Amino acid sequence: MRLDGIGVRYGLRDPWVLRGVSLDVPAGQLIRAQGGNGGGKSTLLRVVAGVCSPTRGSVRDRPARRAYVPERFPAALPFTPHDYLCHLGRIHGLREPAQRAGELLERFGAAAFARTPLAELSKGTCQKVAVAQALLGEPELLVLDEAWTGLDQDARAELDTAVDERLAGGGTVLFVDHDPARLAARPVLRWQVGDGGVAVTDAEQSSTVRITLSTESAELLRELREDPRARIESVR
Ligand SMILES: Nc1ncnc2c1ncn2[C@@H]1O[C@H](COP(=O)(O)OP(=O)(O)OP(=O)(O)O)[C@@H](O)[C@H]1O
């Protein structure tokens, strides 16, 4: 998938939020969009997800199966989670939409609220439904705009696992999150968004692993010393 010359502004007299952004969106890659408030991260995510048309430019080869979790889920929809997910499941062409909806609500700890109107749900439970709708169709492109916000610890961990599943299946996951530790142990491509543009940094593994070697590990220590990816902080 590729963005070509993307420009976005929200009104004729408004400033350009994105200006001439051209980017590859590689398949099978975890991508983190980062930058200051108001820099255009959510705007960029909406363009990538296809829920917002750019004012200028074009998007090529966007995967057919794509899903988006917005920063704010429209909880006022006149549905229960079960009905909402079944409806979307039918749109996705699922053979057993009710079963899939039930599995996802169970997975994210929202099964008890399957028949409660969305408008009556807590913010966190609503967010679980937002995440469940995005995973329904096993998307090749998953776009998550602060999707972890409001989720409890178990649901956050489940979402991490779901991201790994999408990536393992060759899918692309693009996310924004204000917690710098979010998904930090995985190789991630970083998009720095601001001043109308996007700067890309590569997908280096950024995790730090501290290991203790026994005195018999001289061979391993030698290998580590020769490995350009390893940085040895101290040997005692
Ligand atoms: N629907 C909209 N209508 C008008 N202006 C908008 C709209 N959405 C965003 N903007 C404006 O576009 C600019 C970029 O907003 P955007 O939400 O994309 O940034 P962001 O980097 O995601 O911000 P944050 O980190 O605060 O969520 C801001 O100036 C914002 O006010």
Furnish the topology, listing elements before pairings.
Layout: E1 2-8, E2 18-24, E3 30-34, H1 41-49, E4 56-60, E5 66-69, H2 81-91, H3 97-107, H4 123-135, E6 141-145, H5 153-168, E7 172-176, E8 189-194, E9 197-201, H6 218-226
Parallel strand pairs: 3-7, 3-8, 5-6, 6-7
Antiparallel strand pairs: 1-2, 1-4, 8-9
This protein binds adenosine-5'-triphosphate.
Structure notes:
The structure is a single chain. This protein has helices at 41-49, 81-91, 97-107, 123-135, 153-168, 218-226; strands at 2-8, 18-24, 30-34, 56-60, 66-69, 141-145, 172-176, 189-194, 197-201. The chain is α/β, with parallel strands linked by helices. The protein has a single domain, classed as P-loop containing nucleotide triphosphate hydrolases (Rossmann fold). The chain has a six-stranded mixed β-sheet with strand order 5-6-7-3-8-9, with helices on both faces. Strands 2-1-4 form a three-stranded antiparallel β-sheet, with helices on one face. It is globular, with a radius of gyration of 21 Å. The protein binds adenosine-5'-triphosphate. Adenosine-5'-triphosphate binds at residues 10, 17, 35, 37-43.
